Structures are given as structure tokens and as C-alpha cells.
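WARN retry 2 of 3 for item q-0093 after timeout on previous attempt; input resubmitted unchanged.
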Amino acid sequence: MRIVLAATGASGALYLQRLLDHLRGGGHELHLVLSGYARQVVKEEIGALRLPAGVIEHSDKSMNAPFASGSARFDAMVIVPCSMGTLGRIAAGTSESLILRAADVFLKERRPLILVPRETPWNLIHARNAVAVLEAGARLLPAMPSFYSRPGTIEAAIDTVVWRILDQLGIDSPNACRWQEPPGG
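OK item q-0093 returned
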């Protein structure tokens, strides 16, 4: 698959890192864009990202990325974490950065756009923006870990969300714990 991964300024850099870890070695073409605030959050929360070999990085200030155009054939885009400010700008259809332009392209081309907000609580503006992106065709997957797998570490709890992201991408996750199924079942 050709996948665009992006992160914006919400706390939750570990979600992006664990997604990268799960995609490592999967034969996917991965493109990565971090907003300026996402870079700060990564530094504060985990120090630095461990990128799989071959990840292609793009500046959020550049529009010279293939996925900034609908004519480029990409399979999906994931914004993890997605700040509520970014979600609101996507809902409004602004395209002043590469992340926002790419999100707009994925919506207009009817390709999977998966937004993973982590912020809480929400106000009415957040809820209305969430409805707007859902109506436009985005998939909203809030970073809400499950606990029936009895995760014993932060990474294990994070993985319960990452497994759901992988499910939305149609990528098999053999170690995923599913309700009332044995792991790998």
C-alpha cells in the first residue's frame, strides 16, 4: 500500500511511533509529514521517532509531494495524533499546509482518510467539526484504548488503538486482541 502518515500538535506521539513499528517491514510505501507542533510534541514525549527504512519525509510547508494532487494514486492517509485544530481546518476545507491539502485531496478523491484525535474533553465546536468530517467521508477513530486484552504496558494499551487503525487500512495485524477471540484468531 501507498500510505501517507501525518501528525499534528496533539499529545500522543507514541501512537504514531507504534503505528510505524507495526508497519515496519510490511512492504508499504510510507510518506511522513509532521506539523511544526508535532515535531515539538515528538521531542517532548518520546525524544525522536524511530523510522522504518525507506520512509519518505516531507515538509508540511511544501506542496511538492505527490499526494498533494488527486492524480497521484495513494491508498490511504492517517493523521495520528490529529489535533482538534487540524480536524477543524479539515472540516472547513482549508489547504494552507501539506497535511491539510492532502486531507482535502483524500476526501475529494473518496480515499480513506483516518483521523485519530486524542484530545478530551470536547466542546460543541469539536463535536460539530467531527460530524462535518464524517459527513465529508473521513473515518474518525478517537485514540481510546480498550482494556479487555489486559494491557500490561503503555505500549500494549496504545497498540489496542493501532490495531484498529490497521483494521481501517485493511492491513492484517496477527497479534491483535479481538473481543472473545484468542490472539491471532
